[in-house]
Design goal:
Elements lengths: L8 E5 L3 H13 L3 E5 L2 H10 L4 E5 L7 H11 L4 E7 L3 H9 L4 E5 L3 H38 L4 H16 L3 E7 L5 E8 L14 H8 L5 E4 L18 E9 L2 E10 L8 H43 L8 H15 L4 H12 L20 H7 L2 H9 L9 H6 L20 H15 L11 H10 L7 H16 L8 H6 L9
Parallel strand pairs: 1-2, 1-3, 3-4, 4-5
Antiparallel strand pairs: 6-7, 6-10, 8-9, 9-10
Helix pairs in contact: 2-3, 5-6, 5-8, 6-8, 9-10, 9-14, 9-16, 10-14, 14-15
């Protein structure tokens, strides 16, 4: 029968049976839970079977003495308080043991009351250290919670959660299983502790068994072979020693599992670590759900932009795929200019939408020949229409500068505002070059597409007049590098999905 969590558990280790029995009887009467072992080897077996708070061990014993046992305890179960029993003649050795991590020593022959007093002092020291540890845990959890809550990236949330679980629970491996939304679960990530070497792929956990378990109880903490039933596969050469699992839940539904594993012999999770894992999972569940909802929203947003870009291009049979190609060129250029990931994505999305204002231009874009002056004046309003279309939609506001100002020029002779130089936002300067290049290398009603070399020469000629010289130079270099490396615009999903138009720069 296992004692309650409130009862301190003591392991008495001595090769003299009489001493073991006297101490066991007296300590039991004092309200402690007591087990015994006749030497260090037997003590390690007991320590592998259950968690103890304190070990009271003789110094000199056959097979494995007290110092060897102390070193093994420090390595595998450092939370355990160790007290050395020794004769007067080995006091110096006992003092050396204290330098190596023992809490105290008692001299034989001893009064049992003195032993009890020393044990209570050792347990009180352990309690104070545990309280301090819990305070540090609380602070650490707060920081983890802040880091998780601050991110809307599912990948970042999962990585932060996994690393926090490794640190807080002292696990060798942490695996996060997430629901796919259709009733199945998949392994989203596996993080290994920096100080642990896993010899092969992580063991596969049985989602079915985990789900069945959590239908009946909110907690899972198992050790040794009892934990193996929660695995679909196990490597016999390096089997799990301890398993703690916390359920990830949102709106009452299971969205995943946070699983901490120990493979190190003798290193077992305790109830405190399991509770800590549960708390970490509880804090992360809402963040995971928010991140997934945000990913869904982002996917819908991107599909909407693609759909609008496709609708724009279909207004003019000569510009099919134009928006997707401009977005690809703009993305290549933004990377060349050293923009961050978020800004690169804004450039790409803005380029996809740069011609949305054509929806507001009541004119025939498919009639042969060049536009009349009247039609051209109508056409010149499409950047303004584009701005007005996007303005009521708050989450599209970052795209407006590129949509509204991509026809501005470096020399101030562009439209609709006549901005000059750096007055024109960088995003608009990038799209201006990409838009012009694709226009030149695409067929129009009034002319055939220009060759790549001619278009590039024209962009080079217009550096410092039509185009920002640095942006234009970056475009020339990035496109040539792109082509030299054998890339094609078909690598870009938006271009690939058009299935029409020019799929790569013309030779």
């Amino acid at each position: 029968m296992q004692p309650s969590e409130d009862i301190a558990k003591i392991l008495v280790v001595d090769d003299e049976e009489v001493i073991r029995e006297i101490l066991a009887d007296f300590l039991t009467m004092e309200g402690f839970y007591v087990r015994t072992a006749e030497d260090g080897s037997g003590a390690l077996v007991e320590l592998s079977r259950e968690r103890f708070d304190l070990v009271l061990t003789d110094l000199k014993m056959p097979n494995m003495g007290g110092l060897e046992l102390l070193n093994a305890i420090r390595k595998h179960t450092p939370h355990v308080v160790t007290i050395i029993m020794t004769g007067f003649g080995t006091v110096e050795t006992a003092i050396e043991a204290m330098k190596q991590g023992a809490y105290d020593y008692v001299l034989k022959p001893f009064k049992v009351e003195e032993v009890v007093h020393t044990i209570r002092r050792g347990l009180e020291k352990q309690r104070l250290e545990a309280d301090n540890f819990r305070l540090k845990d609380a602070l650490s959890l707060y920081k983890v919670s802040e880091a998780i809550a601050a991110s809307l990236s599912l990948e970042q949330v999962v990585v932060t959660l996994s690393r926090a679980a490794i640190d807080e629970v002292d696990s060798d491996l942490v695996t996060v299983l997430l629901s796919d939304g259709g009733g199945s679960f998949y392994r989203r990530s596996s993080e290994v502790s920096p100080g642990f070497r896993l010899r092969r792929e992580p063991d596969v956990l049985s989602v079915e068994n985990l789900r069945e378990h959590f239908e009946h109880t909110p907690a899972l903490l198992e050790h040794g072979e009892r934990s193996w039933r929660y695995f679909a596969t196990i490597d016999d050469e390096q089997p799990p020693q301890s398993l703690a699992v916390a359920r990830l839940a949102a709106r009452g539904e299971t969205i995943g599992f946070l699983c901490a594993l120990s493979y190190t012999p003798g290193k077992r999770f305790d109830e405190g670590q399991r509770k800590l894992l549960h708390t970490t999972a509880d804090r992360a569940s809402a963040a995971i759900e928010n991140a997934r909802l945000y990913e869904d929203l982002q996917a819908t947003f991107k599909q909407t932009i693609r759909g609008l870009a496709s609708a724009i291009d279909k207004m003019d049979r000569y510009t099919a795929g134009h928006s997707a190609r401009v977005a690809a060129y703009a993305q290549i250029l933004a990377i060349k200019l050293g923009l961050g990931d978020e800004d690169i994505e804004i450039v790409r999305q803005s380029a996809l939408m740069h011609d949305i204002g054509k929806i507001g231009c009541v004119m025939n874009l498919n009639k042969p020949g060049r536009l009349s002056q009247a039609d051209y004046e109508i056409f010149k309003q499409h950047p303004v229409h584009g701005r007005d279309i996007l303005q009521p939609i708050e989450f599209l506001h970052p795209l407006i500068p590129g949509v509204h100002l991509h026809h501005e020029r470096w020399d101030g002779l562009g439209y609709p505002l006549g901005l000059k130089g750096n007055e024109v936002p960088l995003i608009a300067r990038i799209i201006a070059v990409a838009d012009t290049y694709d226009a030149m290398t695409s067929n129009r009603a009034y002319r055939r597409a220009l060759a790549h070399d001619i278009a590039m020469s024209e962009i080079g000629r217009c550096r410092g007049s039509q185009f920002d010289p640095d942006v234009a130079q970056g475009f020339l270099e990035s496109i040539e590098e792109f082509r030299a490396e054998g890339h094609s615009l078909e690598e870009f999903p938006d271009v690939r999905e058009t299935r029409s138009g020019i799929m790569a720069p013309r030779s």
